[in-house]
Every structure is written in structure tokens, then in C-alpha cells.
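Exercise 3.2. Students should predict the tertiary structure of the chain below and write it as C-alpha cells, then compare their answer with the key that follows.

Predict this chain's 3D structure.
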Amino acid sequence: MLAIVLALGAGAASAAPAPAGDPVGGQSLAQRLRSAMPEEASEIRGTLIIGPGKHARQVPVVCRVVLHDGTWETDYDTFATTNAGAERLVIRHSTNGPDEYLYAKAAAPDAALPPPAPLAPADADIPLAGSDFSLADLGLEFLHWPDQREFPDETRLDRACYVLESRNPQGSGITRVRSYFDKESGGLLIAEAFDAGGQAAKKFSLHGSSFKKVNGHYRLEKMEISNRKTRSQTELKFDISP
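Answer key:
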């Protein structure tokens, strides 16, 4: 379920000018990453833990990978809580085209969830269930930006990683994402996002998850994301009990 991920960064000081990187290698790497079809369908349950300490809100969520003929989708269903209605996000992927987003939100905790409606990628900067995960984050939308740069491999979280920098100078808010993808599994381990002024905006990390295989598959325990602009954070913790 490492397709359940996104773009973000840390620190408040302005970053130094970004090195050039390799645009040809970057385009090739981004294409490989966004067209990597999961080997099998899956479903995993978890909890969005939104905010720090005793004030954190908890929202149950179900994450699914659904395979089709040459395409696949990642689905996120959040359950209604005392103060918010249920939500549903469907992201349709293909090996040679842009992602398609469909999104629905119930008007109230006891209201029915309407059918998901199409949403343009440019309009997908919407928080899922009030969390720090935006719809575009979960769709790894930065992999579809026009400017992709590859950098030398690095080690992150004790794993050998591809390093990709995605740039979108015309974007509003986040305009640059530096991401680290595990070379063995292809999953995103860390992503750091910066605004047009070079300041860190968000950071995503699988820090705290183990990377052991169970029955030939990696088990993802949790994902963390922090928003330096709003000083908020969210943890997506998965139920990995047998």
C-alpha cells in the first residue's frame, strides 16, 4: 500500500538554490514510478490521528487498491465521526495518462454519502477528513509535474533510495518536491515540499514503520505528515494484526 502517499518538507528557513539535477533521467524515473502497477489488489484498515497529544482527533479509514485491465485505482473511505460526515476518494491511475480524481463528502455525520464526482487535479488540494493529507498528496500528483530532475541515490531510513525532485514554477503554494523512493519496493519513504520562496511547507515520512516482508509483501505500519505552515500534523496508522 505504498501508493498511499504524498509531498511535503521541514524547517522554516529559506533553502539554498536547488541544484540542477538530471532532467532526462528525472523524466524517465518519474514515468517509471507513476506507471508502476501494483501486483495485486489489497485492502487495509487504519486510523487518521489528526493533531498532537490528547487533543488529537481519530478518524477510521479503509484504504484499497483495485486492479482493472491495464489500470488501477486507490480508494480511501473515511468514516463519519461526531462532528464530520464520511468521505470517499477514488484515484484512477494508468500507465500513460494523468490521474483521475473522484471525491465525495457527506454533508453531516448522519447524512448519506453522495456518489463521488470528478475533480480536476488542480483542484485536489483538499484535506481528506480534515487531515494534513490532501487528495493531491495521496495521488502523488507531483509525479505528473512537467519538470522532473533525478539526483544521485541516497540512503534514507536505512534504505537505498532513488532521489527525485519535481518542480512546478506555475503552481500556487507548493512548487518543489524532493522525494526519496525505496529502490527495492518502489515505495515513497520521504517527501519534502517547498513553496515558491524556498521555505519548507510539508514533510511526509514513513519514519517508525518497519520494512520487513510478510508473506512476500512489505507491511506498512504508519505514515506521518506535518504541515509547517499551519503547525499541524497527521499520522495514518494501519491495523497490521493478523
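Discussion points: Confidence is low (pLDDT under 50) at residues 1-17. The first strand starts at residue 42 and ends at 50.
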